[in-house]
Amino acid sequence: MKKIFDDPIIQDIFCDYLDHGDQIVICQICHAKLWKAESIRGQKKGNTSYSLCCGYGKVELPSLKEAPPSYQNLGRTTTSTSTSRSYDLQIIEFLKDMLDSNNALVKSYRMYPLLFPYGDDGYRVDILHRGISSSSNSKRPTCTMREFFAYRIQDMDQSFSLILNAKRLFQQFLVDGYTMIESERLFFIRNQQKILRCESYENLRNQQALGSTDISNVGQRVILPSSFTGGARYMMQNYLDAMSLCKWFGYPDFFITFTCNPKWPEVQRFLKDTSLHPEDRPDILCRLFKIKLDAFIKDLRENEVFGKVQAVVYTIEFQKRGLPHSHICLFMHADCKLPTVEYIDPIVSAEIPNIDDDPELYSLVKEFMIHSPCGAENLNCPCMLDRKCSKNFPKQFCNHTSVDSNGFPLYRRRDDGHFVEKSGVQLDNRNVVPYNKYLLKRYQAHINV
């Protein structure tokens, strides 16, 4: 089992893995650290600033004041601390004294702004873009709320951020920021209703034919346009786009689920010298997942892992535990549309590999592609519904792959004696989630094909 790193902290990194490296790109304007793949996306020729952090240099915010070293140590410490009541009271007393001595607002309002101990300015509607004066004729001279928060949550080179090391408080900061941005967008849409208000042309003509001289009141008074992410029109527009692909290319041929892996080596290296856990930096998980997903889609289209692809549709969702995952539909070329056993077996496997023949693949299948013990062995498994597995595991043994009357494949699951052990239960080929060997090795995550 050949590994490409000797560091014992970073486990199970194999030679076939697509590693995107570390945050080696530094924005020359705001000094934010980015992955190379992030800097290439949407980059303007010759630019040394980027869209993700400061909007190509448009956003300029004052640096937050450096917190006292003793306060920083709460975020930097890598040793486990006691959770006793006396220790908690010491921390609270320390925070109270520190904030009272540095932040005049705390004494008046007693809100404990732990992320801004000096009472730094938050968002205002009149923050001007870099190089813009109040007398400029720029179409949009001020910083939006999204630009403000995108700037504030960047890792800046050679600086320590209380926000990014606040763990659960950072998560709360992100949620609050999201709700503020969403509220600002909804407020803008509400103020634009006279422009957005709509009704079908046919209905307006009918109203006019009936003798109505004033048709200004016809139609919905308040609507969410399709440009509002998550709105009814947005969802319907995307649904119709997907259905038009089905009409043109036929039904999708592959359904793939690609899930974020918080143990990716890029994440492990990022957190290596900190006290943080992957769930403490959901922004990093999402950014890396987008990088991986872009590479994944490019692999499918350009390298033709499953054959010639004509179209791809995917959506990104979030699990209950917060990890992003993508559902991907592939529309294949006509030559790859009809599934046959000879076509399926080389690209989709549902068996545990021999540990001696391919120890790398065995390790990855055991880690990512085994359906957890359920049924009588674990009635509390999330997949259980009415005391049965909602995913229909364990499957039946099958010596050969076949295609049923509806065109759905039944994958080969031989009773070959191979098994893995999870939670003290031996699981065989009947519990393997279908996977592709190449993609599993390359992306080291749960990829259900």
Would you give an account of this structure?
The strands form five sheets. This protein has a four-stranded antiparallel beta sheet, sandwiched between helices. The protein is globular, with a radius of gyration of 27 Å. The two termini are 25 Å apart. The chain has helices at 36-40, 51-54, 69-76, 85-102, 104-109, 145-152, 168-190, 193-196, 201-209, 232-249, 265-271, 282-302, 341-344, 359-368, 437-443, and strands at residues 25-26, 33-34, 254-259, 309-318, 324-332, 384-385, 388-389, 402-403, 409-410, 420-422, 425-427, 447-448. The protein contains 15 helices and twelve strands. The longest helix is centred in the middle third of the chain and has 23 residues, at 168-190. It is an alpha+beta fold.
Task: Give the structure's gist in a few sentences.
The protein has 449 residues and is of the alpha+beta class.
Keywords:
alpha+beta; 10% strand
Order of strands across the main sheet = 4-5-3-12
Rg, Cα atoms, Å: 27 Å
Structural class: alpha+beta
Largest sheet: 4 strands, antiparallel
Percent of residues in β-strands: 5-15%
End-to-end separation: 25 Å
- Low-confidence blocks of residues: 1-12
- In total, the number of strands is 12
**How confident is the prediction overall: mean pLDDT?**
86
- Shape type: globular
Proportion of residues in helical segments: 25-40%
Specify the number of helices: 15
Element string (H = helix, E = strand): EEHHHHHHHHHHEHHEEHHEEEEEEHE
Domain Helitron helicase-like: 148-328
Organism: Lactuca virosa
InterPro entries: Helitron_helicase-like
Protein name: Helitron helicase-like domain-containing protein
